[in-house]
Input
Amino acid sequence: MAARNAIPDFILETELYRQGYGYVAGLDEVGRGCLAGPAAAGAVILPRYPSKEVFALARDSKQLSAAQREEAYEAITASALSYAVGWSTPAEIDRTGIAAGVRRAMRRALEKLNPPATYLLIDAIPLPSSGLPQKSIIRGDSKSLSIAAASIVAKVERDRYMISLAKRYRSYGFEAHKGYGTRRHLNAIAELGPCHAHRMSFAPVKREAHRIQPQGSGTIGRWAESFAAAALEDRGLKIVGRNFRTRFGEVDLIATDGQTLCFVEVRARRPSAFGTPSETVTASKARRIIAASQEFLQQDGARWQDWRIDVAAVELDHWSRPASVEFIESAIEG
Output
């Protein structure tokens, strides 16, 4: 059994490169056991000859202080051929379970890598849905330099997110415990009830879930737009505009899909809602979206091979959090 303070090496990666694999990615997750916040997965492709700084600094992220992780993060991201972090939201975790949520975050991280991975070294959790050759390694972040690097990248970016989340939900102490079940966190849940960043299916949040505070339609709408934007980026589109307002109306999201410009109307809806997403866009609303889209095209000045207007149907869960999204391409004919 490997020691907890073992120093990861690059032996596995070197052997895989000798076998002809082009890009070996380390993959690791953080936040699995948290009561709040997303699960995150880091994916890192290091060069065939990693820098001395990466060798010196990369360890299992749990062995490092916050300052050491930040220093290692800078060295890793400065020299990696590619790195990415994928996320699975609390609502997605509540809908499908944590195991599926972790694998979803891993797939999303892999989809962002450029160049793409051709072999995976994963900390403990196999990922057969990736379709890639792979090796899952128990406590891999203490054995493989690539996995250690992935654990650091995921931990640093998730910690930064939780610190920013603490500014929205100031009474829970997310900046300190990052969503883990510390005594301070448990006391806050018992006193205040959970917030929308909590995982409602996790004990002891579950027994307090009925106390969650309702959110206004404006806040829910912004959450839905951000959720749809992240999903578009997962699909390989690039967000180039949000909430483009004109005298005619507003376009929620604008994205590029290759040489096609996509205008996206986001519709947040509950599972019990009647009608298809596109049917919820009235004729007058559609005319306003078309007019606003055409004005953007006139102002943009770029020549696009094609453009279309899509609808993003964001399904809300019981607590009005975005849980899934369906895209209907060319739902509104311009």
About this structure: DSSP finds ten helices and ten strands in the chain.
